[in-house]
Amino acid sequence: MEFSHYAPLWGEALLTILAVLIVLLGSLMKNSGKLMGYLSAAGLVAALGLVASNLTAKPALFFFDTISVDALSQFFKAVFLMVSLLVVIASLSKYTGKGADEYFALLLFATVGMMVVSSSVDIVTLFVGFELASLATYALAAFDRSKKNLEAAVKYFIFGSVASAFMLFGFSLLYGMAGSTKLADIAAASLANFGPATLVALLFVIVGFGFKMALVPFHMWAPDTYEGAPPLVSALLAAGSKKMGFAAAFRVILIALVALRMEWYLAFAILAALTMTLGNLAACWQNNVRRILAYSSIAQAGYIAIGFVVVGAAYGAAPVNVLNLGPLRADQLGIAGALLLILGHALMKTGAFIGTALVASNVAKGSESDPDDISNYAGLAKRAPITAFCMLIFMFALAGIPPTAGFVGKFVLFSSAIYSGLVWLAVLAILNSALSLVYYLRIISYMYLKESTGPKMVEQKGYVVALVLALIGVVGIGVFPEQFINWALQAAAVLLPQ
Amino acid sequence: MISNAISLLIAIPLLGAVISFFAGAKAKFVALIASLIPLALSLQMYMEFDKTSKIMQFVESYDWVPSIGVKYTLGVDGIGFPLVLLSTIVTVLVIIYSWGETKKPNQYFALLLLNEVGVLGVFTALDFFLFYIFWEIVLIPMYFLIGAWGGPRKDYAAIKFFIYTHVASLVMLLAIFALYFTYQMPDGSRTFDMLTLLAATADKTIFPTSLLNIIFAGLLLGFLVKMPAFPFHTWLPDAHVEAPTAGSVVLAALLLKMGGYGLFRVILPMLPSVDKAFVTIIAIIAVISIIYGAFMALAQKDIKKLVAYSSVSHMGFVMLGAVAFTWMSVTGAMFQQFSHGIITCVLFMSAGTIQHTVGTRVIADLGGLADRMPKFAVLMMAGFMASLGLPGMSGFVAEFMVLTGSFATLPVYTMIVVLLSIATTAAYHLWAMQKAMFGPILKKYMEVRDPHSYELFSMAMIIVLSLLFGLQPGLMTDMMGTAATQLMEPVMTLTQMGVI
Lengths: 498, 500
Hints:
The complex is a heterodimer of chains A (498) and B (500). Chain A is mainly α and 498 residues long. Chain A contains 19 helices and 4 strands. In chain B, 73% of the residues lie in helices and 3% in strands. Chain B has 21 helices and 2 strands. Chain B has helices at 5-23, 27-48, 81-97, 105-124, 128-137, 139-149, 154-182, 194-200, 209-226, 235-242, 245-270, 277-299, 303-324, 327-358, 369-372, 374-388, 394-409, 411-437, 453-471, 474-488, 494-497; strands spanning 57-65, 70-76. Chain A binds chain B through residues 321, 323-325, 401-403, 411-412, 415, 418-419, 427, 430-431, 433-434, 437-438, 441, 445, 448-449, 481-482, 485-486, and chain B through 65-69, 129, 132-133, 136, 144, 147-148, 154-155, 158-159, 162-163, 166-167, 170, 173-174, 177, 181, 184, 188-191.
């Protein structure tokens, strides 16, 4: 076995070594926070480069067929690496002093965990990756050690553990049924021995993933956690670790449990409709910007879940001329749409949370008022013009207004719903997009129309660079969607082979 | 022949908007230049425009997102080009009128230019996708113009404007998607091309009437709200009353025309293929809008609200002429769009000037202003006369054509309009004019003087244009007539469509 055989996994290896190195160096060197930050950023850039050089990898299996490198895993890895990179760049302006080494090390471990999940084709490997990412983010959620952080972290930890327990119990049933932990074996077994145990396993798996993806009614933890955690960590949670839930759910539900699609089809139809509607409605009544973003990210999870419904409705359907992409299967289009929305949402949400982090960092320390209250955004256009402008575009993108990444994802996804005969779901989703504009517009009108109440804000370099990079991504995908649509289709083909 | 003329037309104000935004106090000069170039360019295009040609002119077409069939296609014909001219003219005049704006002038002028970008895009886009993007872009500058420079209830008015028209556009978007997903080109691919899709709606095997009715209703709602037509007009008075003068002017002169443009570009080509009841529905809405708008105007205390309701009334003529579907009425309706676009500017400018020279717009508190502001009074009087349809001005020609043309196919509706609206329209114009401008001067207004020359200049230019097009309507109606002939081609009249 040669070293170069593992070339597709060098990114994970690099980040793991770097994370350990940062912990070691951090304990030896004092005040090395800045250096650690730059090291992490460099490591993430390198890993992103490695993934980018191999975007549409031919499927290859490693480690006794438990890890697969394919177009889908590369897609998710690229998303996670981008999110982590943006968060690290923004963190360069915040975490510079004592403890910064731990922060960056945890962030890298979380990223490695997410990358492992996106490559796993074995439920045990998947669970290990999941826990690696989760444990690291539990610690990150409490990182600033304020009372609010601790509350958020405890809530996140408890719900996360319960979700893991559900998931693990579901996995154990699958293992019992199939006698193997490999997704391919489980798929074959669930087709052969369909029975009550499989159904129970499916139920547990859906509940477990439902928590991770924050689908209504398993969403309660998300607003509290996203509001209470340090703002930059919220960015990682909403844009990164939540998407990890989708990465895992795609593999487990669409590959291993595809035999049960008639069962989960209905479940996901209800979950998707509930999640987008309730998420959007709840967001209208919030006054805390991070809570608004949290509910908006719940609503987005609802849209993304349409991908499952489309697969359930149109699995293996004969190819038709879809859009102008040539003969294509509606189910592949659905997954491609979900992937595009995941990519777009990761960028927009990271950007939006980084924006809130910048505002919060400018609100006087120790002031009684809530730093994320919408009143702090009054006149932001004057007080922090770059941040306000980026936030403006992110809000429009989240609402799905063209030409932004948000529109591209929604367009492809909702089209696939129409092609698979789910017109009601597509119409509901479009109406929901209209509804969502109400609360995005509220933030915009605070930023641009309200008279400013405070002094000019300091727009720290790290935050600004991260914001602008996210902005370029969001607009770039929106204006030149062609490449991204093709890429997402290739990734979707991994889940739904001919 | 200038290549890519329309793209230039759109790009220059966009660039101007960006530069103005960073130009600080010099923004107005940037804005003036950035609006004069498109004006010159559009006049040049007018010279080159072939008024007898039935095909799209100045067409540009590039692939944009081939995988979903989106193209960057622009072009103008007799429907769109007069409105392009209207947009470039009005934008220049409104920028001149706003020369004295001191509150955040850089943003103010940038938004006016951005607005021009949006409306020019709407009037020239020939791809539904592109059309929708421009349609939505227009919302943004107007939202900010009302929200940041507006009156006391600006927050409410801005959000009401945005939500109302955005919801209507979403319904329209659903209808566009329905067109898009139903029609497949012969090679199996999809397209957003407007002309292709609209031509396809005539094919009953692709678009059964039941489906087309729903699509048609969705598109119609999007346009009626924008026009606005009764009962979807309620956002308009609020938006107008709170908007700054320049905002009101572009709102009435350009944004409402987007709805009317939609009627001609999208609704009329589909009209022969949908349920015949739609003709009656649109005609009834048109008649109610005309009469209701006129009577509401009569009842207003605020002169700006009066003008706002007069817009509802005048836009009703556009609807009536369009749906009557004779050559004369359709040409007249297109001309009414253009004519109302210029005349309404002077009305809103009058209301704005009264507001900031006298300090109130309540008609009952005004009186005798003509004594102190003679030049202004002449221009305002001329504007009001144009608006009520004085022969010799463009409004008369347009409304005359609409009524004459409509009488042939919709005689009852036309008679109702003639009986109930002509006198009312004259009444509210004359009554407001007389009460506000004439009579004995009130003591508290002794110090009032004529407004700045730039305000008077803008108003005077509009009067000149209204006279020009009133005496020489052929300058515009020639190309509109060609477009109307083109629209009539598939089915000649309502009689042949089986409506009457």
